[in-house]
Structures are given as structure tokens and as C-alpha cells.
Here is the input.
Amino acid sequence: MPVGTLGAIKGLDIGRVRETGAEMVLSNTYHLALRPGASVVAELGGLHRFMGWDGPILTDSGGFQIFSLAQQTKISEQGAIFRSHIDGSRLEWTPERAIEIQEQLGSDVAMVLDHVVALPNDPQTIRDAMDRSVRWAERCRQAAKRADQALFAIIQGGLDADLRIECAERLTAMDFAGYAVGGLSVGETPEEMYRTLHVTVPALPADRPRYLMGVGRPEDLLEAVARGIDMFDCVMPTRNGRNALAFTDEGPRRLRNLRYERDPRPLDENCPCPACQHSRAYLRHLFIAREMLGPVLLSAHNLTYYQRLLAEARRAIMEDRFVEFHRAKRRKWQAGDPGEKG
Amino acid sequence: MPVGTLGAIKGLDIGRVRETGAEMVLSNTYHLALRPGASVVAELGGLHRFMGWDGPILTDSGGFQIFSLAQQTKISEQGAIFRSHIDGSRLEWTPERAIEIQEQLGSDVAMVLDHVVALPNDPQTIRDAMDRSVRWAERCRQAAKRADQALFAIIQGGLDADLRIECAERLTAMDFAGYAVGGLSVGETPEEMYRTLHVTVPALPADRPRYLMGVGRPEDLLEAVARGIDMFDCVMPTRNGRNALAFTDEGPRRLRNLRYERDPRPLDENCPCPACQHSRAYLRHLFIAREMLGPVLLSAHNLTYYQRLLAEARRAIMEDRFVEFHRAKRRKWQAGDPGEKG
Here is the structure.
């Protein structure tokens, strides 16, 4: 899912988002609640009409933003009290409120409010946050009223296999429409993340969507798919695109590099995105000259790259050759383009 | 012509530019000569391939940028010596060099180098700049070698009717492929500009394109069309679009205005642009939240508005009802939307 934090995938009109191959998008409840406000979105007919997106939308619950963005945050059993990162105003966020706002937004998939903590962290903090996340998930389930909105639970528990499995079992027992693995990509190494997925995903029902939140690099996606993950969201394709980094089968390319100054080739001659209608030299020029079109084009390219990668992975799974597919991709990424590293 | 200063219409991929209805685009020789350099563009197959635009391209000569952007400029009969506005490096610009660079870029229409001065100004300065512009135009004509590139002359002469007519007659005698009116929109009032067009355009051959450089607001365009102008370029649709100002038949709308916070209507329900797929409230939200998509969408809208306006004007001329068309548009613009002014 491309990330439309504030109801917009940064720099791309909704037609261009569709053309990346995206079938579902994510938007951030916390951000929309601050600007323009959930009641404004509701009054305008809900988030689909607001964004002009007729496909499914998933909204997160604000748990991650309270962890990463909010100021002077105090977490209690009741919920979180914090100050807005925009204007410093005092806000209260509870499981019930997180659901209410997501129901106002009218997303297709809502997420329970969870308590996210940084990694590494002490075991008691991680256990407490996991226990609280489970209790909050139950409160969210009780609060949810919209029959047309699916509710996904979020597994917490840090890097502790026992905690993750316990959390998965307790949430699975509550029977949610889907299950997310949260609290990763918050300071741990990729290997620690993969190990955690390795023990967590098998504890989730295989007939429900399994969603890895906020991850990651192309290699992370395939490692997670290999461990049973079905859904992803990440700002990396758009954020890195804005910073002149293009994802390709030869690994990432940093387009400000002088070696692209006169390079007439497209980033990827098989890519149908609007960036790949141009030479690398043109894309480099746009970034060097600080033209807004550089971030626009590279965001489109990177989103297209991610969608094509996962479409290929899906096909490989259907045709029972995912292991070979994964190995071949990894080999190409690792070989990279020698010049890029020089 | 939408303005693609550095080989890109700011924020719009070339497919979106085409969808505004634009048939021809402008790019700035001075800017491209500094970044990425004319030889880079030439090596990459010329400006059409560089930008990915298969329609006609007009390049200006740098005369206006030397007047408006360059630092420590010294104008002599030979040419201009100045410092780059990017890195302060010393540059020399002559009529021959302006043609050479435009030939490297490979635009369809090249412009002669002219000497632009601010208005108001003393009569002798204006006369000298006009005389020099005529001599430089002749040197450009001598220098031009590409048979596939048309060369347009530029009429100077400030607000002095006699000077303008003299300039037009001297340049017309040299037989250029088209004629531009330059040195306007540089400090004079709209009425002074219209009066100058009124005396200048009739002195130009009616069987050649007549081009008003760097103008302007929608009302300026129709006033100029009424006086015989055929072609325009202006940054106003894109620059104002980036600043949340939308052009409409009810006059300009400033989309940051609180009155649009919950306005579910599109800017213009007949407009086919991607901005008009959304509510005014959404567009306002994008600007308030500083989302890049706001500038992107409003640039597309404003360019579409300008293209539709001139397409309507063309139709009205063909059907011999331009005066009525012009009167009706002016009345709507002047009436505006009462709320917008409040």
C-alpha cells in the first residue's frame, strides 16, 4: 500500500497512483485527525471521496505516530495523552477514540490502537506494552460499529518469540478480520526482524490477511513474503524517491551521482512508469536543479517498482517457484551495478 | 505555451502537460545553458527527447533572464557580460552564442537576443536598447544555420509608439518567421501594455505568428488577442498554482481561504483536469498541510484553464463572435464570486 499520510500520496495525483498498479492505499488517522479533522472528511463524504480513490483504504490507528511524532506523551491504561506535533495542542487518544475517528474517515480496514515501544527495550516495558495492546485491541473490538469496516489486530511483543506468540494467540482468540505485525522497523536489525516474523507469522491464521506494518526495503518485503506476510505499507518508495534514490533490480541508484550526467538510458527499460520515459540524465538534472518533477517522477517509479515486485512474487507463489524467484532477485540486488558503488 | 524553465513544467510529468491541451511549450535557454548545459542536452538527443515532448518547443534567447536574473550585468555592442545567478561564474552572452545554444538545444522556434530594459525608463535608454536589439536581431539572423529551426524577432521600444513602429518595420524588413512583442510586463500598467500592443501589432505582418512574451493574466490574454496576438507564454498559471491561486471563470480563487474548508464543489465542474476531480476542501487541505500534491494539481488546473480559454477564443474568432465572447468573459471575471472578495 502506498502511504497517503494526509489523504494524498505525496506528489502523485490519484490517477498516477492507480497507474503504479496499487490496489489499496493507506492513510494515517493521527495526521488526518489533526488536519483537516475527521469531521471535515466525514462531512465531505468520507476518505474515499476526499482522496478520489475508489479502491480499498486502510487507516492505521495512530499508535505509531503517538510513539514517533507526538510530544510529551503519557500512556495510561485509559489511553495516550500528548501534544500535537503541529501546534502543541493537548490531545487524548483512546482505543474507542481511534475507532470512532476511523469510522468517521470510513476506511475499509481499520486498525486497533496499539502501544508501540522502541527497540531495544527492557523486557518488562515490552511485556507491559504487549499486554496493554491486547487489552486495547479488545476495547477496539467492542467499540467498532461499522459493519462495512474490517478491523485488524496488531501483534506486539518486541523481539521476544514467546511474547509474540502469546500476543498472537490471545488476539487470534478474539477473531479479528486480519492480523498485523507491529512494533518492527523501530531500531532492530533486519535479521532480528526476520527472526521475529519467522516465529510470529505461523501463530496467525493462514486464512486471514497477515500485514507487516511500516516495512521496508525491497529485500525486506521478499524476506517477509517468504515468512508468510501478505500485506505491506511503507513510506520508503515515496520518501526515498523524493530524495533521488531509485529502486531497481540492480539495487538502489542515487540519481544525483555525476555518473548519470550524460546517461541516456532509462532507469529500467521494462518499467511502464512516467520516470522511465526519460533518461537517467534527465532525472539527475531535475534533482540537481531542484525541480519538483524529480520527486514526482521518482515517487511514481519507486511505487511502480514495489508493485511490480510484489506482483512478480505473487505470480511466483502461484506457480510454486517463489524460492527460485527470491534467490534470483536477491542475487541481482546484491550484485548491483558496480559503478553505483564506486 | 506552458513554461518549462529547466526542461520541465514544474511538478507535471509530460503526459499531464499534454492533457492540459497544450500544443507547444517554452523552455529557457539561459537556464538550460547553466543547468545541465546545452552540450549535455545536445548529447542526449536534443530538448525534445530530453523533456519527452514530441510537440513544438520554443526557446527564448536569454535576453529577459540577463535583464531580470543575472548579476553585475554589463551590456556592450558585442553582447552581455554577467555573473550566473547560480554560482556567480562569469558568462558572456552574444547574439551568436544565443543562436548557437538554441541550435544545440534543437528547439523548433528560436528567439533572437534582445536588450530588455525596465519601464519606466528614460527615452534615450529605451531608444538605445531598441536600436541594439535590431542590430542583434540581424546578427542572429546571420548566425542561424539550422534549416529546421524557425527564428522569431523581438520588437522593443518601451511604451513609445513611434519607437515600437520603427522597430517593427526594421525587423519586418529582415523577414523573420515570426515576431514577438518583448519588453512588456516589466513595470508598466496593463493599460499601457494594451496601448502599446494596439500600435505595435498592426505594424507586424498578419501572415506570421505574433507572440506576446511573458504575459499574463487571463484578462491580459484576451485583451492581447483582441489586438491581434497569436501566441503567449507565461509562468503565471504554474507559479500562481504553486501558491494556491486558481484561475476560474469567476476570477481567481485563493484556496487557502477558510471559506473552502468544507466546500464539496470542484473548482469548475466542466474542467477535465485532475484537480477538478476533487473538492475545493481537499485542494485547500493539501495547501494547508503543505502537501506537494497541491501545487501539482493546481498547476495542472491553471494550465488547463489557460488552454481552454484560448481554445474558446479561437473558436469565437472562427465564428466571428470574439467581441461578444470577450465581453461575456470580462463580465464574469469582474463580477467574480462575492465571497472570494469578502
